[in-house]
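<discrete_fold_record>
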Amino acid sequence: MLANLFVKNYALIESLEIAFPGGFSIITGETGAGKSILMGALSLILGQRADTNVLKHKNDKCIVEGVFRISESFRQLLEDHDLDYESRSLFRREIAPNGKSRSFINDTPVTLQVMKEIGTKLVDIHSQHQNLQLNDQLYQLEVVDFVAGSAGLLADYRSYYVPFIKKQQELQETREAYNRLKEDMDYLKFQFEELQNATLKPGEMDQLESELKTLEHSEEIKSGLSRSARLLNDEGTGANELLKEVVLLQQRLAEIFPPSAEMASRFESAYIELKDLHAEIERQSEKIDLNPERLSQVQERIDLLYRLMQKHRLRNPEELLAVRDATEQKLAEITLSDERIKKLGDELAGLKEKIVEKGEALHQLRMNTGNHIRNEIVNQLIQLGIPNARFEVRVEKTEHFDRNGMSRVNFMFSANKQVPLEEISRVASGGEVSRLMLSIKSLISNHKDLPTLIFDEIDAGVSGEIADRVGSIMELLASGRQVIAVTHLPQVACKGAEQFLVYKEDTEEATYTRIRKLNRAERIVEIARMLSGEEVTDAAISNAKELLKA
């Protein structure tokens, strides 16, 4: 429950602090005094967004703090978010002048989403504009699920629905990619086969161009090699014969001229090297052959490679290998996509079977709950002064499923015998909508373990005896939980165990919103004012005492 609320620099509030008791408390005040401002400040520590428009003094930050007394049952929720459990937990929100917002729970920084997740489990604030939710089929479905206690079954259903949607998206993307590739499949096959049949090899072009140059000059090469061999080895005049003779001369001179010994050795080495060169020339000459057929083959191969390079707009033949491999990969992707499409289709069929199974069970539970809701709401409406009220929860099975199942829920209402059941927005007056919403809140509060319920003028549009009954229902709801009601009705105000007055205070500098707890005498005067207006009469005082049983 909300034990304490501190607000600083928010709208018309400069600074205020108020302690709230358990049970049923009332907040009253004249129109425009700032009751809604107070609720707005409270909503900040429940995770609602805000901007710098809330700052009273634009150069100072806004601070809202709430102390909540929470039970042990909230320990796990806090620990799931790495927060310390404290029986008196402090929620703090700061809005800086630059618009930046910071949130804390028990002095630990948290995201706004975490604050909202925990806050909505602590407090439910119902304001007048939320009466419009009654016309929202999704809200109606949530009401049915709250009463049905279907959270576990719905979570089980979504455990199949969520992956189904993801796989459905994946299947669509795979099909689109497959169709794009398939359009080019014939061309890709031709391109791959052409490159594959070309039997491309790394470095082949350099080898071919070198061989082509040799083949084109084979006669000149062979002639040059033959002449070189003759110059080296002709009998009598060949370089080898002459060098051999030099070696012998130097060896003989070495006996009488020592330097010739070294020269003889060096000339002998040159002689051996020339003999090797002559042998190499002979071998190379034998390899050179005039081969017009091979010349034609090499030329055709080079022409093929250049043609493929030009076709694919490439600069070197090595890039052809990359194109071939990429084309092969695309063809493999088409095959894999085909297999993936079939696999995804099978997986989707299995998930859909589970979705339908869980959806059917969820739908049946909702249908069974509809009758219970109808009976409870009708009984409440009769107590709230609509004796001929009829209410029906229509739960229809949908042709398609979504994240909430396979059910469409529609609340139907009629306040009069002769008026057929219609959607609430078509037949319910403002007062009837207020009573309907109070009845629904009363119903779901017993199925939703909320420590604190806040009603912000939910009783709009009712008066007299009906207002008294509205107050009695709120008082009953306060058994075992904290209920705070913002109201203009004295019949409701008198039901509260405690009453707080929101009022404006004017100073020379500005207007401020204040709040204070009323004592017994002050409550009598305030309720008398609510009965008679600004001029509090003796009759109003008497009536106020009677309402308060003072």
In short: The first helix runs from residue 35 to 44.
